Amino acid sequence: MEITASLVKELRERTGAGMMECKKALSETNGDIDAAAEALRKSGAAKADKKADRVTAEGRVGVASNGGKAVLVEVNSETDFVANDVNFKAFVDAVAAAALASGAADVEALKAVKLASGETVEETRATAIQKLGENIQIRRLVKIDGNNTVGTYVHSNGKIGVLVELAGGNAELASGLAMHVAAMNPPHNKAADVPADFVAKEKEIELAKMTDKDKAKPADILEKIISGKINKIISEVTLYGQSYVLDNDKTVEQAVKAAGGDVVGFQRLAVGEGIEKVVEDYAAEVAKAMQV
């Protein structure tokens, strides 16, 4: 069967594969476009396996929400260039929407969810790897599933995403709190959430920093001094204790209580956190190539 330009074009639009790959697949399947598409999908999976060990420290955070339900997904790529590609962005959005609609408990469950295209998330990931030429991984999924107000925020560059669950209050406050968490990255929600061993260690450090003169003060005075320092540290590491970024005259706790609300909890994802990035020395690479 003759492999026409229009047939190649149709296969390219359908699979996103390169022109020569499409032409080869059509030739090998005697012009059967369905068989060619399947062959390209299998080829994409093989390419995905080959790229699986390559570091993916870039990417984007996707968000989807509906009422009291919301999800964040972190999808990683090798380079920021691909992370900003329209096809990659569309994939991230589709994955987030699928995570919300399916209620998938984790990334592994999400991979088996079918998208509107009829392909699973994992099959679509393999196709994206083939099309974009980089390793792509769905790394994390976090969600809120309740009946409270949910505030969502994803930074304009897609690198940070936040969900905040707020009982009472209002949607505007929930959104503002999500922006605050994105900017200030508090490790804990309230003072009661700060681990006791952290507090004990900070007390030990503050005591060691004190002068002999201060240490010689009466026990009750010494305890007040130490408690004041510890309370300040706890304020810095808790959402409730921090100065609210949208109203610096109030702490977050004051802003939340003034609105009749209570922060149940929050989730924050930053792309690539915890991944050791490969630092490439291009000058050294070029110099080495010149010696060959």
Describe this structure in words.
The protein has 292 residues and is α+β, with helices and mostly antiparallel strands. Helices cover 50% and strands 18% of the residues. The chain has 13 helices and 6 strands. The chain has helices at 5-15, 19-28, 33-51, 80-83, 86-102, 107-111, 121-132, 171-184, 196-209, 212-215, 219-236, 252-258, 282-291, and strands at 58-66, 69-77, 137-145, 149-154, 160-168, 261-270. A hairpin with a 5-residue loop joins strand 4 (149-154) and strand 5. It starts with a helix and ends with a helix.
Low-confidence stretches: 45-51
Give the ordered list of helices and strands: HHHEEHHHHEEEHHHHHEH
**pLDDT averaged residue by residue:** 88
> Which range best describes the helical content: under 10%, 10-25%, 25-40%, 40-55%, 55-70% or over 70%?
40-55%
* Major beta-sheet overview: 3 strands, antiparallel
Overall strand count: 6
Task: Enumerate how many helices there are, as a single number.
Answer: 13
Note the topology.
Blueprint: H1 5-15, H2 19-28, H3 33-51, E1 58-66, E2 69-77, H4 80-83, H5 86-102, H6 107-111, H7 121-132, E3 137-145, E4 149-154, E5 160-168, H8 171-184, H9 196-209, H10 212-215, H11 219-236, H12 252-258, E6 261-270, H13 282-291
Antiparallel strand pairs: 1-2, 2-3, 4-5, 5-6
Helix pairs in contact: 1-2, 1-3, 2-3, 3-7, 5-7, 9-11
